[in-house]
Amino acid sequence: VAGSNNLAGCGPTTLGIYSASASYMMPLMDGFTFAAGILPTVQGAEVVQTTQNLNVTRGIVWGTQPVTNVGFTGTLDMGGGFSAVLGMMNNPTFVEVTDSNNSKGLTSRLNYGGDKFSIGAGVNWGKADTRSGGVNAEVYNKILLFNVVASVDPTDNWTAYVDYTLNYTKGPDSTTHGIAIATRLAVLDTTGIAVRGEVLMDDDAQYSAGGNLWSVT
């Protein structure tokens, strides 16, 4: 997948690895799956594969969320629509193939999915390597990412979701809020109309050079 610095070995114009892992399922409750390697993030509503998103293009809130991480996760299916994820990674937000510090990032999420409604909340937390001038210039900032996604399917041909992401970096302190609201109405079996509105409150210009942003797709 080209065009994302959040993928393993991937620059703006190069190819990168989205997923490469091994997994094993254990007979615990309705199933416990352990996976390790390069893993897709469990946070956010949109994914790299645009055919799985409501819109053809990804939004500005997607740019504040992880895409893939290196580490391991354990996913427990508790039954009744509930599932939980807990894992560790090299970096709490962006991909870091080789470990750059002695600390690890934490990823977690709790999801509920029903026939017409689903909601999930997750947290990524840890230290990130932000060095820019060699070993003597290393700064390991503490980063917290909090994400909530709620979706509703009122009818068989209509779906909508709200995606909220908080990014907080300590040292120097910086806080970013992003919210996306999207909906899609299927007109024909192969044709739908999708609308997405987004607001990114980024006063410290952590994810955008121009600070606060909004978009309509």
Describe the protein in words:
This protein has strands at residues 20-26, 32-40, 68-79, 82-89, 105-113, 117-129, 140-155, 158-170, 174-188, 191-201, 213-216. The chain contains no helices and 11 strands. Strand 3 and strand 4 form a beta hairpin. The protein has an 11-stranded antiparallel β-sheet, with no helix packed on it. It is globular. It starts with 19 loop residues before the first strand and ends with a strand. The chain has 217 residues and is mainly beta.
Q: β content, as a range? A: over 45%
| Succession of helices and strands | EEEEEEEEEEE
Rg calc = 18 Å
What's the helix count?
0
What key attributes describe this structure?
11 strands; 217 residues; 0% helix; mainly beta
Care to give the gist of this entry?
With 217 residues, the protein is mainly β. The chain has strands at residues 20-26, 32-40, 68-79, 82-89, 105-113, 117-129, 140-155, 158-170, 174-188, 191-201, 213-216.
Give the helices and strands, then pairings:
Elements (H helix, E strand, L loop, with lengths): L19 E7 L5 E9 L27 E12 L2 E8 L15 E9 L3 E13 L10 E16 L2 E13 L3 E15 L2 E11 L11 E4 L1
